[in-house]
UniProtKB/TrEMBL annotation, chain A:
Name this polypeptide is given: Amino acid/amide ABC transporter membrane protein 1, HAAT family /amino acid/amide ABC transporter membrane protein 2, HAAT family
Cellular compartment(s): Cell membrane
Record's bilayer topology term: Multi-pass membrane protein
Species name: Salipiger thiooxidans
Any GO molecular function: branched-chain amino acid transmembrane transporter activity
UniProtKB/TrEMBL annotation, chain B:
Alphabetically ordered keywords of this record: Amino-acid transport, ATP-binding, Nucleotide-binding, Transport
One biological process term in Gene Ontology: L-amino acid transport
GO MF term set: ATP binding; ATP hydrolysis activity; branched-chain amino acid transmembrane transporter activity
Annotated protein name in UniProt: Amino acid/amide ABC transporter ATP-binding protein 2, HAAT family (TC 3.A.1.4.-)
Protein species of origin: Salipiger thiooxidans
Family: Belongs to the ABC transporter superfamily.
Amino acid sequence: MAFFLAQFLTGLANAAALFLVASGLSLIFGVTRIVNFAHGSFYMLGAFIGVTLMEILPGHVGFWGAILLTGLAVGLIGAVVEMVVLRPIYRAPELFQLVATFGVILVIQDLALMIWGAEDRMGPRAPGLRGVWRIFGEPVPKYDIVLIAITPFILFALWYLITRTRLGVLVRAATQDREMVGALGVNQAWLFTGVFALGSALAGLGGALQLPKGGADLLMDFNIIGAVFVVVVIGGMGSLPGAFIAAVLISVLNVFGVTYLPQSTLVLMYVVMAIVLIVRPYGLLGREEVAGEHGQVGAPETPIRPYGPLGMALVAALIAALAIVPVFAEQFVMTLIVDMIIFALFAASLHFILGSGGLVSFGHAAFFGGGAYAAALLVYHTDTPMELAFLFAPLAAGLLALAIGWFCIRLTGVYFAMLTLAFSQLVWSVAFQWRDVTRGDDGLVNIWPAEWLNAPAPFYYFTLALGVGGIVFLRHVIHSPFGYALRAGRDSPRQAEATGIDVKRVQYAAFALAGAMAGLAGGLFVFSKGSVFPTTLEIGESFDALIVVFLGGVKTLAGGVVGAGFMTVVEDWLTRLEYWRLLLGLVIIAVVILMPEGIVGSLRTLWNRLRHTDEEEVR
Amino acid sequence: MLSVERIHSYYGKAHILSDLSFEVRRGEVVALLGRNGAGKSTTMKSVMQLVRPRQGQVTFQGRNLVGEPAFRVAKTGIGYVPEDRRIFTDLTVIENLEVGRQPARKDAPHWTVEQLFQIFPNLSERRGNRGKHMSGGEQQMLTIARTLMGNPSLLLLDEPSEGIAPVIVEQMAATILRLKAEGLTVMISEQNLHFARAVADRAIIIEGGEKKFDGSFTELEAHPEIRDAYLSV
């Protein structure tokens, strides 16, 4: 019993930092609608800045003073990020900003590496709180008790700020209708900056406060961001008490998970999130997200059209050019192009469900990696011929999408995104931990294509045919009646239903098709590399696809493909350099700011402007 | 006080307002009349800069507004009450009023929460209620009160009588006349000619985003063909 209590207290103490970081993210999302992936980076900055300040400042005052100063410093950094990176792109399509925040992650990672070096830092002990107190005989660190005692005060202070002050009233009003808040004379730009700074400061405080328990290292940002999103989603986006309850729930479960079921730790919180979202689609204390609430929708969609003769000719020329590459090119060029085509097909499948379906999936890698693993497992365990195993990749991925989609499709917006993320984490943890079958992180190796394909040029043509074929097929579907129904459901679900379209069923089918196509890309991937590892199922893989789709342009058909090509080439150049993350991050941020409609969208706007200037002047 | 000169406004490629000009003088109540889709709401939004006119000028007390963000337009003293009310449904009545609060202005009547509760007694009874638990009429009162908290010198009321019980419409007319008596300049958009005549000094009629008539109600009555052509009676 005493042991049980001590475990529980440890969980509560862990919840303190998690709650701080999560409440910051929740605030930022509530007001600005930005899904801030970089929030974990502010937490990491908080830890590093905290360590540095604690080394400089002595004693009690130094320790607690350093924590407060850290909050202030990270808040300032957040304000700068908001003003420089995010302010220019608030009018961009919904969720576009998350690409910019991904760029921020990369920049902060390399800056932290430059400033603090690659070595982990031990956090200093809190002065006067070094030992343990015994509670029913069990040792509980004094600092844990202090953290447990502090958390309710933080919750109360935030609650007071949000419910009892003018700033809080404005924040809540802006969460609901920011355009109206502006029309009443409130400068939204500063409100946004203020909220972003406050949210960042909370993340920084969390990072500094956990120092005596954890320390500071360069993986902190990615390690916490998953948990933070889970907490915010379980609690309900924008709800502080919800975030508190969820932080406690996750932290306590985690402590018990480590003790009683160590294999569960990687996936436990995602399972909890999936259950909560299936039972309560808007989190424990969240309110229903109404798509297109006032001031939160962009300009109406410009309908996409099939290419005219010029476009067709260009595509044909591109394919012809790709077809003659093996005649003169060296092998590494072919490998690069194979990578590019596979990634382009993967991105196109995500683009299909995201652009035309309006469903933002954060877990699309489940189908890419799922397809790859399906084929690889057959070859590895049963020596299935490659041709058959390859066909199994899209099939298995499509079935997986049917299974996952059955749970996810009833949700919308960020909640849909998070549930797909949860399921993809489940799939990943199966691949990672079911060692008997998947060999865990040793991966499955020696998965080579059949004899007739097992050379650079034949496999190149194989990839070209299936990759281009898959992309063309997806485009064809978008322009078919099914595609019209899908787009109708995206633009106006109610009207679409009123005309007799079963929106959810159409979306479900589209989700399965997108999954199958991602699986096809996965099948090509596994036979091009000869191996597959759990990394193909990671969050990072899903986000890569997401980023290229947004970079290329969500509202254009070629977006995914162009984005994938752009990213493959840029990464190929930059990863040779030492601080490639910094540069890649800056490139991403630059593209996002300069081309808010994505590469294809912005080029098209520019083209239209050039063509129509004479016309407009006459008017 | 407010001068709109030859503005053209668009939604995407749709041309909504075309070469529209009019003036609002200090102390008057002007009614902007027209059918559904005539461009009344877009006119108001174009003044507020919630829709940016692509051509033309909007000047308020000598200041050009085109290109300014909406919050700055509000700070010059223009209060805007949108057609669809847009109260903050998760906030209480008092909190809704707080969002609208701005410092006092020299050239405009100054409102306190208590004064507004005298004008809108229903709101006083419901001061702690959340917006979502209120009737349409009460929500309309709340949007007007919320905008008045900004102490505007010009009030833009977009279809205040729409979707409201006739008894409340009468109250609304009395309220607008009271606001005028306090020294406020008001522009209302309306489809209800009867209501407009009861409160306004002058009528502007638009159709298809173009101005068709600008004059007194006496003049308008002398030309029933205008009324029949542009207003649904």
